[in-house]
Amino acid sequence: MSTFSLVNKTRFTVGSIPFKKIKESVLGTDFDLSVALVGPAESRAITRQTRRQDHVSNVLAFLLSKNSGEIILCPSAAKEGIGYLFIHGLLHSKGHVHGVTMEKAEARLQKQFPICKKQSPG
User: Which has more confidence, 118 or 31?
Assistant: First the structure.
């Protein structure tokens, strides 16, 4: 039996984003996933530690094993919608890399879960 956990360390209201349903659609029911919503300072610290870069990341995805992973989201750094970034992180957890294939998968999932559209600039 897989586990799903969501920890919100911010004031961001998760609202009606169906995180677990989206996770199961992308990664299946046998994948253990933890999701953390963090502030900019924590995001920057994690980015420094794991990527050796000094900036606030909006989404970081870590594959811990074949069937488990973690996604870190920073709502205050998000220029895209949190739902979209969650999908983006899930696809990285599934092994996708940036490119046309990943963009097509994102578009398909955005249609399946309309709450997770990219936000328009401005």
Answer: 31
Tell me the domains of the chain and their CATH numbers: 4-116 (3.40.390.30)
- Residue 89, classified by CB atoms within 10 Å of its CB into exposed (0-12), middle (13-18) or buried (19+), is buried
Q: How far apart are CA 99 and CA 93, in angstroms?
A: 15
Among candidate residues 18, 35, 29, the one with its CA nearest the CA of residue 114: 18
Give 75's contacts (C-beta < 8 A, 6+ positions apart): 10, 12, 37, 82
Q: What local confidence, expressed as pLDDT, does residue 122 receive?
A: 36
Length of the chain as a residue count: 122
Task: List, in sequence order, every residue forming a beta bridge with 86; answer none if it has no partner.
Answer: none
Q: Dump pLDDT digits (tens) for 16-67.
A: 889 999 999 999 999 999 999 999 999 999 999 999 999 999 999 999 999 9
Query: What's the rounded Cα separation, in Å, for the pair 62 and 10?
Result: 20
Token reading at 117 = 């559209």
